[in-house]
């Protein structure tokens, strides 16, 4: 059997979750501009879900520099890239971190994952698809901007969290990502998060302006998931290499993240095909 066929067979063998299994949902966190707070949002959102007894894997897909390990103070031994190179199992890559939050590092050159040869691709697919039904959420911390690889992951996710700051460059760059994403996947489920707002009015105004632009120029309504205020405790937590949700649970940022999670869990579920659907899309849909 040739390699392409072998991969197709692997895809077929993957079963859909039964009612007794968890429906694994894939959330991609992205932004237009860098440095707007994606990694902090991904990590603290994940930990807030964990506090509600959800099983969560956070996946560092930053195609430039990995961030999550630094924020958590964890040094992963293996990454997705070394898993593929050395034909390791996914268990060898998953680190169990704070409060049982699971962490997967993409590793150096993770962008190449989309151009692997058949044998390596089959291995990647088989290992990552083993998460199907085992966890509730896979949260992808993607890099900023419109890279080809990043876009493929966004297109395939069940939900995309678009993080913006109230400053105009962050808004316009965020809008460019939104537009590019809808061009690729017209039914993408995008949720807006405003990070570092100075007050409630600024957060609401920013989201309103963004939603208006989206409705007017793209004919799309996007949900506003919530805002996280500009909070000095975020920086303190980053320096302490400990997530603000745990280090400063009473900070405004921590409370805002918990609120954001509650809002998210109350929205109608966008679950489509879970891990199988996600992998099939990133690998086969161009
Ligand atoms: N709500 C906030 N209040 C105050 N400062 C914040 C907040 N969120 C993020 N920051 C600051 O912004 C910095 C960058 O955040 P983070 O690393 O999460 O951004 P990012 O979007 O993941 O960056 P990159 O694009 O480089 O991956 C943090 O180190 C912190 O100092
Ligand atoms: Mg980051």
Which properties best describe this structure?
single chain, 286 residues, alpha/beta, Rossmann fold, eight-stranded mixed beta sheet, 8 strands, binds adenosine-5'-triphosphate, binds magnesium ion
In brief, what are we looking at here?
This protein has 286 residues and is of the alpha/beta class. Helices cover 46% and strands 16% of the residues.
Please describe what this structure looks like:
This protein has 286 residues and is an alpha/beta fold. The chain has a single domain (23-284), classed as P-loop containing nucleotide triphosphate hydrolases (Rossmann fold, 3-Layer(aba) Sandwich). The chain has twelve helices and eight strands. The chain has helices at 3-13, 38-51, 68-72, 80-86, 118-129, 148-156, 168-184, 200-218, 232-239, 244-247, 252-266, 274-284; strands at 25-30, 56-61, 95-96, 102-105, 137-142, 159-164, 190-197, 223-229. The protein has an eight-stranded mixed beta sheet, sandwiched between helices. β3 and β4 (102-105) form a beta hairpin. The model has no long low-confidence stretch (mean pLDDT 88). Residues 31, 34-40, 62, 67, 144, 195-196, 228, 230-231, 234-235, 238, 253 line the site of adenosine-5'-triphosphate (ATP).
